[in-house]
């Protein structure tokens, strides 16, 4: 699953033996099962939920939406607003208006090697992120910041190039300048491959949260240990071990065998598996389900000439019976998505266009587009070209693989051939999707936060390429000038009623242009031991590990 500012979202190896632990050891260690291994450990390079889930325990953003979907400070001590004077309008040198936003850094925030977290770490993060060759996932966020003004070691001001309603999203999380600056300055183009986050991930100086990375077994296991310099409440566990088991059936087996204590909701069992598990083992485990802003969809490579026509994209969508998928696979608890804005979000427009299952309309549209010749059940055009696509997703995810099979069957009824080819998540997200190597269809999820403007996934200047070192998250290659203007307009509109009208037009354009094929809104399901307390799902990009120091062991 990918994550973005709209983002995305966006899901690890089978353990071969059962290890028994004494009650003393179990009280000190928490073993979490998850289905993906991070493609890398750098906070800004590539966007992947598996990485965010791990780093949630080793770092803290300045601001995040909490479990009530309200923005709160984690690394800062006072949330900046116009009312408290920390946010101010300012005239830009070239004309127009921008914002200055003042932040403080928690006075005791310290990297794991004892170096204080300072304003200079924020300055370096900004300089690195806005460099055209750095290869960060969301370079536009860094470019919106005109400068970072250092007031003192623990206070700084970001100067934004425009007045935006979600100004608190535009603040770089600190990167340890004392470790990373020289690596970056030596060769910015190679930085993403030489960063200490990947070459030396157990370096104490990379963490400033309650835990730090102590051991990495690539593709298999990540061990965290207490960070001695953490300034907040002491976490309950001496160690946290993330065990990566890509096959969800094996994930469940490892939980029952005692090799795992819990299964992550962010990257764990599908809803249908979790519900079946609860029926069988509800007396021994607690199962928490959290609906939210998790958008399962299919990215289309719009450089493929066949997929560049929105009429064909609509025909593909109308050939999918998403209601049946929701009812039969997920007991109706993962509702159909008609666009990228969730009905749970206040900007949702219930009047936006919807294209329900209509096989006859799909076939008629394909016929009108010239796909009228049928050989061996597959449509061809007059030139003899076959209407055929490759569909990819994360290997081992039982739910997605079932959906793939249903999609393949349903599209076949319309005469469309779909060939399934899946990859491990770290390859799928680390290369195939982020470098736009998929030729047809890529199924995954975006996970976002409330009223999150999807700039990085839809703006035409956010298309990853070799020239920009694969920066950006517009993996489809979507280009639409009206969409570009809408996204810019939504950000700078402070009036809620006017902004809601812009959101309505956005949803209308998205639903008719179909840069991606919407599938359903996913629910995250957590499988926890009854002795584990304090895990509070958010339903958005704020992963549960951001509050891991609140997790407690009671009556274990």
The chain-level mean pLDDT equals 91
Q: Characterize the biggest β-sheet.
A: 6 strands, mixed
Residues in β-strands, percent: 15-25%
Number of helical stretches of at least 4 residues = 17
**How far from one another are the termini?**
32 Å
Structural class: alpha/beta
- Cα gyration radius (Å): 23 Å
Low-confidence stretches: 3-27
Shape: globular
Count the E strands. 21
Structure report:
- The structure is a single chain.
- This protein has 17 helices and 21 strands.
- By secondary structure, it is α/β, with parallel strands linked by helices.
- Strands 1, 13, 16, 17, 18 and 19 form a six-stranded mixed sheet that branches. Strands 9-10-11-2-12 form a five-stranded mixed sheet.
- It is globular and about 70 Å long.
- About 50% of the residues are buried.
Task: Tell me briefly what this model is.
The chain is α/β, with parallel strands linked by helices. It has helices at 23-28, 49-55, 119-130, 139-143, 177-186, 191-194, 196-199, 248-257, 271-281, 310-318, 322-330, 359-368, 398-413, 425-433, 455-458, 481-492, 496-513; strands at 2-8, 29-34, 63-65, 71-73, 87-91, 97-104, 145-152, 155-160, 211-217, 221-226, 239-244, 262-263, 285-300, 373-375, 378-380, 388-392, 417-420, 441-447, 516-529, 532-533, 552-553.
How do the strands and helices of this protein lay out in sequence?
Blueprint: E1 2-8, H1 23-28, E2 29-34, H2 49-55, E3 63-65, E4 71-73, E5 87-91, E6 97-104, H3 119-130, H4 139-143, E7 145-152, E8 155-160, H5 177-186, H6 191-194, H7 196-199, E9 211-217, E10 221-226, E11 239-244, H8 248-257, E12 262-263, H9 271-281, E13 285-300, H10 310-318, H11 322-330, H12 359-368, E14 373-375, E15 378-380, E16 388-392, H13 398-413, E17 417-420, H14 425-433, E18 441-447, H15 455-458, H16 481-492, H17 496-513, E19 516-529, E20 532-533, E21 552-553
Parallel strand pairs: 1-18, 2-11, 2-12, 16-17, 16-18
Antiparallel strand pairs: 3-4, 5-6, 6-8, 7-8, 9-10, 10-11, 13-18, 13-19, 14-15, 20-21
């Amino acid at each position: 699953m990918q994550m973005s500012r709209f983002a995305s979202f966006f899901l690890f190896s089978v353990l071969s033996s059962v290890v028994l632990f004494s009650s003393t050891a179990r009280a000190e260690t928490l073993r979490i099962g998850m289905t993906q291994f991070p493609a890398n450990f750098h906070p800004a390079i590539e966007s992947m939920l598996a990485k965010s889930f791990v780093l949630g325990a080793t770092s803290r953003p300045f601001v995040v939406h909490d479990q009530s979907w309200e923005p709160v400070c984690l690394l800062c001590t006072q949330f900046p607003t116009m009312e408290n004077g920390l946010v101010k309008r300012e005239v830009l040198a070239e004309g127009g208006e921008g914002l200055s936003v003042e932040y403080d850094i928690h006075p005791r925030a310290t990297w794991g090697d004892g170096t204080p977290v300072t304003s200079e770490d924020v300055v370096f993060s900004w300089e690195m992120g806005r460099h055209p060759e750095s290869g960060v996932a969301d370079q536009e966020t860094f470019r919106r910041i005109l400068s970072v003004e250092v007031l003192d070691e623990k206070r700084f001001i970001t100067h934004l190039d425009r007045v935006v309603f979600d100004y608190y999203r535009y603040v770089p999380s600190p990167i340890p300048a004392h470790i990373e600056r020289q690596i970056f300055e030596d060769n910015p183009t190679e930085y993403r491959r030489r960063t200490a986050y990947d070459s030396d991930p157990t370096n104490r100086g990379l963490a400033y949260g309650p835990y730090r990375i102590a051991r990495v077994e690539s593709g298999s296991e990540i061990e965290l240990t207490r960070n001695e310099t953490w300034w907040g409440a002491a976490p309950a566990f001496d160690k946290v071990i993330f065990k990566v088991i890509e096959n969800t059936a094996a994930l469940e087996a490892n939980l029952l065998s005692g090799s795992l204590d819990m299964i992550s909701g962010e990257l764990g069992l599908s809803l249908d598996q979790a519900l079946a598990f609860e029926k069988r083992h509800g007396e021994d485990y607690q199962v928490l389900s959290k609906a939210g802003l998790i958008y399962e969809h299919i990215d289309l490579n719009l450089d493929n000439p066949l997929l560049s026509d929105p009429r064909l994209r609509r025909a593909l969508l109308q050939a999918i019976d998403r209601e049946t998928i929701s009812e039969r696979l997920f007991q109706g608890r993962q509702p159909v998505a008609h666009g990228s804005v969730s009905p749970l979000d206040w900007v949702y427009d219930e009047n936006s266009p919807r294209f329900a299952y209509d096989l006859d309309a799909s076939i008629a549209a394909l016929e009108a587009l010239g796909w009228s010749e049928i050989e061996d059940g597959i449509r061809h055009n007059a030139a003899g070209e076959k209407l055929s696509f490759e569909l990819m997703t994360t290997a081992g995810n039982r739910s997605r693989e079932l959906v793939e099979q249903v999609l393949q069957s349903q599209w076949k009824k319309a005469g469309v051939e779909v060939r399934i080819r899946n990859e491990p998540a770290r390859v799928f997200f680390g290369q195939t999707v982020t470098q736009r190597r998929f030729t047809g269809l890529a199924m995954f999820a975006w996970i976002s936060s409330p009223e999150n403007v999807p700039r990085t996934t839809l703006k035409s200047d956010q298309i990853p390429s070799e020239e920009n070192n694969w920066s950006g998250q517009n993996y489809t290659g979507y280009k639409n000038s009206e969409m570009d203007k809408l996204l810019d307009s939504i950000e700078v509109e402070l009036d809620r009623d006017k902004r809601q009208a812009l959101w309505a037009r956005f949803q209308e354009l998205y639903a008719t242009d179909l840069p991606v094929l919407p599938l359903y809104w996913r629910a995250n399901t957590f499988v926890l031991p009854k002795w584990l307390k304090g895990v509070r799902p958010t339903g958005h990009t704020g992963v549960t590990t951001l509050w891991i120091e609140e997790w407690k062991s009671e009556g274990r």
